Amino acid sequence: MAEPLGIGLVGCGTVGAGVAQILLNHPDRLAARAGRRLELRRIAVRDAARPRPVTLPAGLVGTDPRAVLTDPTVDVVVELVGGTTVARTVVLDALAAGKHVVTANKALLAEAGAEVFEAARAAGRAVCFEAAVAGGVPIIRALGESLAANQVTAIQGILNGTSNFILTSMAEGGMTYPAALAEAQRLGYAEADPTLDVDGSDAAHKLAVLAQIAFGVAARPDQIERHGIDTLDAQDIRFASELGYTIKLLAEAWTGASRDGGREVALHVAPVLLRHTNLLAQVRGAFNAISVHGDVVGETLYQGPGAGMMPTASSVVADLIDLAVGRAQATFAAARLWSREGKGFVVEPVERVRSRFYLRLTVADRPGVLADITRILADEGISISSVVQHEAGEAAKEPVPLVILTHTAETGRFRTALRKMAALPTVAAPPVSYSMGD
Amino acid sequence: MAEPLGIGLVGCGTVGAGVAQILLNHPDRLAARAGRRLELRRIAVRDAARPRPVTLPAGLVGTDPRAVLTDPTVDVVVELVGGTTVARTVVLDALAAGKHVVTANKALLAEAGAEVFEAARAAGRAVCFEAAVAGGVPIIRALGESLAANQVTAIQGILNGTSNFILTSMAEGGMTYPAALAEAQRLGYAEADPTLDVDGSDAAHKLAVLAQIAFGVAARPDQIERHGIDTLDAQDIRFASELGYTIKLLAEAWTGASRDGGREVALHVAPVLLRHTNLLAQVRGAFNAISVHGDVVGETLYQGPGAGMMPTASSVVADLIDLAVGRAQATFAAARLWSREGKGFVVEPVERVRSRFYLRLTVADRPGVLADITRILADEGISISSVVQHEAGEAAKEPVPLVILTHTAETGRFRTALRKMAALPTVAAPPVSYSMGD
Predict the structure, then answer these.
(1) Cα distances (Å, whole numbers) of residue B251 to A18, A425, B200, B226
(2) DSSP-assigned letters across all residues of A314-336
(3) Which of A242, A331, B161, B202 is least buried, going by the fewest C-beta atoms within 10 A?
(4) Which residues of chain A does B35 touch, with a Cβ-Cβ cutoff of 8 Å?
(5) What pLDDT shows up at residue B269?
(6) Residue A381 pLDDT > 90, yes or no?
(7) What is the distance of C-alpha A4 from the center of its chain?
(8) Which element (helix H / strand E) includes A364?
(9) What angle do CA B139, B141, B142 make, to 5 degrees?
C-alpha cells in the first residue's frame, strides 16, 4: 500500500468535527477505498477549550493555522474556517506551501475563485470543493465528470436548505414567513441571523460555483439577480397551490444564443412556481436538489441533505479519497476551472429569458380594471393562461387580489408591463410576480 | 496537449451510434474536458449495410471485431454487442490485447464480473461501466466515488424504465397490464419480447452490479429473489392508491448484522408500495432513479433517463473522458471490484428482512373470515395497520377482496402466515402480497 495521505484541518466547527470523526472512526474503510491510509495529522481551532462532539487526539490540536500549513507531514489542508478573509489566506498559504486544498467555502470560491485556482495551478496542487455546494449531494462531480460529454444547457437547483425548510412549513403547515422562520431557528435549520440564507445570497454563491463548472463563467455577485423568500407572502403560496403549483426558492441558469451569435447564460435566484408534479416541487424540508439539463443526456436530478455536520463531512472526505487515489489531481488539471480561457459563455441579465409568470395584483373591484390590465399585457405581446379573481364578499369596497398566469413571455417585456400596471390608479399595491418553471 | 485517445467500437446499434455521434460531432468539447482528443479509430458492426442515424467515416467500419482488438492505434474498446457470449470474448480479448474496456453490458458484469475484472487486473487495464446501470444516471460514480466515505446501508432503485413506464400507464391511465404493455411497445419503450424487462431479470442484473460496488458481493442470479410486474393486477394499483401508495418495481438491498456477528445483505426485485410523497413514487415514465442510504451522508437520490440512445451514450463517453484524464485507471486500481477479497458482506435471502406488507385476499363474505385471518397474523407476531373490505354489493355470494396493511414484520414470518391463509377454505384465491417502503 502507498504512503499514507497526511491531512490537516484548519477550522473544527460542526463540519470539521464531522470530518475528524469519519477519519478517526473508519480508518480501515477509508484505506480500502483510497488504496492508502488517510491520517489526520494536525488541527488548528480558534478555541481549543470549546467542547466538540468528537474527541480529538491530544497533541494534534493547536490554535495557529501556520502550524498546519508548515507541517511537512501534512499533504492536504482542509479549510473549514468559512468567510473570505482568514479562509483566503489559509487557502493561498496552503497552496504556496505545496499542500492540496479541500474546502467547503462557496463564498470564497464565488468571490476569489480565479485567484485561488491560479495559485493552485502555479503550485501544481489541486483544490477540491464537493462540499461547497449542496452538502452531501455530489453535484460537483456530476457536472464536472459524469456529465462531461454534455454541454449543460440549464440548471434548476434548490440550494438553500433553510429556505426550503421554511417554504415547506409555509406550504404544508399554513404558517406565515415569520412563524416558519422562528420554527426553523428553534429546530436549528436557521441561524440567529438568517439573512444570507433567506435573501438568496447563499444560493447565489452556490450558483456562481456551478456556473463556473458548467459554463466557465466567473459570475460577479451583481450578475446574479436575487430575490429571497423573506418577502414572500403566504397568500401567494396558497394561490399557487390552488392553481397546481408549489413555490420553491430556485437558483436557475438558462443558456441561449446571444445576439452576436455567441453563447450566453442568465442566472438568478428567486422564488419560482413549479407544478406539483415536478420532482423539485416534491423536495421537502432542509433537503437540496439540483436538476441539470445536458444537451446529450437530457435531464438528470440529484437530491440529498444540503447541509449539516455529517452530510457535508461525507463530501469533504470523498474529496480526500479522490486526492489519495489521484483522481482529484487529474480532474483539476483537465478542468482548468476559473482559468482565463473561459468556455465562450457571456453572462447576461435575465431580461431576455422567456418564462411563464405568476402575477398578483391588488386591485379596486370596479369596472374596467381587468380591461386595463389585459390591455397592458397585450401591448407587450403577453398572452394570459388563466385569471382568478375571487368575489370580494362583504367588504366590497376593499381592494381584492387578482391572480393572473401568463403564457411564455420575455422577462424584460413582462417587467415593462409590470411597471405600467403599477402606475394604474386602480392598482392599490405594488404588483407581486414570480416566474414559473415546468 | 497529450496524445489522442484511440477508440474502437465493437457493436454499433442504437447506443453505439449515439457514442459515434458524440465523438464525431463534439471533438473540441471532449478534448477540452479530457485534456486530449478522443479519436474514433475503428468500428466493428454485424451488418455494415444497415442504416444508422449517424454517418460513420468510410474506412473505419468493418464486420470483424478482431480488426478493432488488434489495431495498435486503439487504446480503448467500447463493447456494445450485448449478451454474454460474443461480448465476453470481445472484452477478454480486448483486455488481453492491452486495451481498456468500456461496456454497457450489465448481464456480462452480473454473470462474469469476476472473470472480466481479474483479466483486467492481470492486463493492467481498466474496465468502465457507468452505462451498464440506469443509462444516463451516474450511479456508478456516485456509489464508487462520491459516497466513498460511507458504508452504503440500503439501496432502492427504479432500474427498469420499461416496467416503470408500464406502471405509470396503469396507475395514471387506469390501464390493464396487457394494454399498458402494448402501449409501451407501440411507443418503443418495450421490445417485442419484453420478458427480461417485465419479469425483473434486467433490474436484478443491475442490482447485482450495484451490490458489487456497495457491498463487495458477487451475487449469483438465484440470490436475488425477483418478482416482475407481469403478474400485477390493476386492482392492487387501485387499492394501493386509495390507501396513499404508489406501486413501483424496485430493486432493493438491505443490510444488517448476521447472526454470527458478521454483515449481511439481502437483495430482491419486486413491486413495492411507496407512499405517494416518496420521491421514488414520483418518478414517472421511462425514467430511472436510485435512492442510496449511506451511514455518514444519510439518503441521496439520483434520477434521470434510464435508457435510450443518447442518455446511455452520454455515460459511455463520460467513461472515455475518465480514461483519457486518467481517473478511471486510478479508480479501477483502488476499487478492486469483483476481487476475491470481498468486503465482509454475505448475501442472505430476504426472509429476515423486516418490512411492512400489503396483503389482498379474496375471501368468502361470511362470518369468522376476518377472525381466522387476523388470528393467523397474530400467531406470527404480525400486527395490522389497516383493513379495507368494501361491501359486497349485489353479488353478495361472490368472494370479495379484503385488503390488509401490516405493521413491520419479518418477511419469513409473514410468508408463513401467507401459507396458512392460503390453506383456509374461506380464502378463494392465492393471497397477493407486496412489501411496503416508506
Answers:
(1) 31, 61, 9, 9
(2) HHHHHHHHHHHHTHHHHHHHHH-
(3) A242
(4) 333-334
(5) 98
(6) yes
(7) 34
(8) none
(9) 60
Domain count along chain B = 3
Q: Report whether B149 contacts B278 (CB < 8 A).
A: no
In this structure, the answer to whether residues B114 and B225 fall within a common structural domain is no
Interface contact flag, A305 B303, Cβ < 8 Å: no
Last residue of a domain, one of A128, A154, A186: A128
Please identify among residues 317-336 of chain A the ones whose CB lies closer than 8 Å to any CB of chain B.
317-318, 321-322, 325-327, 330-331, 333-335
CA–CA distances in Å: residue A389 to residues A18, A400, A405: 52, 8, 12
pLDDT of residue B394: 63
pLDDT digits (tens, 9 = 90+) for B58-77: 899 999 999 999 999 999 99
Other Cβ atoms within 10 Å of A64 Cβ, number: 11
With bands split at pLDDT 50, 70 and 90, how would you rate the model's confidence at A116?
very high
Task: Work out the average pLDDT over A354-373.
Answer: 93
The pLDDT of A100-125, averaged and rounded, is 96
- Quick one: B175 and B268 in the same domain? yes
* Same-domain pairing of B48 and B151: no
Q: Which residue has the cell 394561490?
A: A239
Domain final position from A306, A334, A367: A306
Element at A303 (helix H, strand E): strand A298-305
**In A, which residues are within 8 Å of B137 by CB distance?**
300
For the record, the C-alpha cell of A415 comes out as 417587467
Question: Does a structural domain hold residue B329?
Answer: no
Task: Report the distance separating Cα B208 and Cα B318, nearest Å.
Answer: 22
Of B35, B141, B334, Cβ closest to residue A34? B334
Residue count of chain B = 438
Which structural domain range is residue A376 located in?
Answer: 353-436
Can you give the pTM of this predicted structure? 0.96
Phi, psi (5° rounding) for residue A54? Answer: -135, 145
Handedness of CA B143, A150, A333, A66 (dihedral sign): negative
A183 and A95 within one domain: no
Whether B96 and B177 map to the same domain: the answer is no
Cell matching residue A178: 415569520
- Cβ-defined contacts of A92-95 (< 8 Å, 24+): A92/A116, A92/A119, A93/A65, A93/A66, A93/A69, A94/A10, A94/A68, A94/A69, A95/A119, A95/A120, A95/A122, A95/A123, A95/A125, A95/A127
**Position of cell 384465491?**
B429
pLDDT tens track for A37-59: 999 999 999 998 888 889 999 89
DSSP string, B77-121: EEE---TTTHHHHHHHHHHHTT-EEEE--HHHHHHHHHHHHHHHH
Q: Is residue B14 part of a domain?
A: yes
Answer whether residue A345 is part of any domain: no
CATH code for the domain in which residue B73 is found: 3.40.50.720
Alpha carbon of A29: minimum distance to chain B alpha carbons (Å):
8
ipTM computed for the complex: 0.95
Q: Report yes or no on B377 lying in a domain.
A: yes
Across the interface, of B289, B322, B335, the residue whose CB is closest to A145 is B322
Residues of B in contact with A327 (CB under 8 A): 145, 327, 330-331
Does residue B248 contact residue B200 with C-beta atoms inside 8 Å?
no
Instruction: Fill in the DSSP letter of residue B148.
Output: T
The reply to whether B102 and B159 lie within a common domain is no
For position B252, which CATH number holds? 3.30.360.10
Q: What is the CATH number of the domain that holds A415?
A: 3.30.70.260
**Shared domain check, A102 and A67:** yes
**pLDDT at B208 > cutoff 80:** yes
pLDDT exceeds cutoff 80 at B296: yes
Residue B159 three-state SS: coil
Instruction: Name the residue type at position B228.
Output: G
> Within this chain, do residues A123 and A143 fall inside the same structural domain, yes or no?
no
